[in-house]
Amino acid sequence: MSLRVAPPAAHPTSTSNTTASKLSATTSTKSKDDLDRGAPSAPGLHDTLRASLYPQSTASTQTVTTAHPLESRLANWQATQEATRLQILRRNFGIAEPLRRGMELKLVRDADSFRPSVLGRPAGVHEEILTGRDAEITWEDVYAGQDGMRLAFQGGDGQGTGWMEEMERKVGMGKW
């Protein structure tokens, strides 16, 4: 593995709405019948809802299915930075250090996998320290959301869900 600073640029440089191919920067092995020719009601227009805006994933990169291609690019950036950091640790300290950090990270993620919304979302401080992101402030740190809220259209009165009710759903006690 090379020590890349940035992930390879696999995003399309342009799109074409009038040709048979979906993205002009990528090659496709599909037959002519399988190609996306646009919206059914207007064949010359690009159908954004049915078409993919991000490049097809390869075996080495993971694709984030989001609304914006930059989110996929950011996820690939973080994955590349993490792989580079682990490769540097492996070169300096041997295989034991990246393995130990990987096991610690798995333990931290498993410990925070369920926490009742009444108690708030898990802080993730341990995970941020292990991944080297403890000095960053992201939008998840600022916006907590309304995870435990039950809205009126969901049959609730806008109050938060009780932790016992949430735990019963988690362990499947309502299925009896």
UniProtKB/TrEMBL annotation:
<dbReference type="GO" id="GO:0005634">
    <property type="term" value="C:nucleus"/>
</dbReference>
<dbReference type="Pfam" id="PF05348">
    <property type="entry name" value="UMP1"/>
</dbReference>
<dbReference type="GO" id="GO:0043248">
    <property type="term" value="P:proteasome assembly"/>
</dbReference>
<keyword id="KW-0143">Chaperone</keyword>
<dbReference type="GO" id="GO:0005737">
    <property type="term" value="C:cytoplasm"/>
</dbReference>
<feature type="region of interest" description="Disordered">
    <location>
        <begin position="1"/>
        <end position="47"/>
    </location>
</feature>
<feature type="compositionally biased region" description="Low complexity">
    <location>
        <begin position="13"/>
        <end position="29"/>
    </location>
</feature>
<protein>
    <recommendedName>
        <fullName>Proteasome maturation factor UMP1</fullName>
    </recommendedName>
</protein>
<comment type="similarity">
    <text>Belongs to the POMP/UMP1 family.</text>
</comment>
<dbReference type="InterPro" id="IPR008012">
    <property type="entry name" value="Ump1"/>
</dbReference>
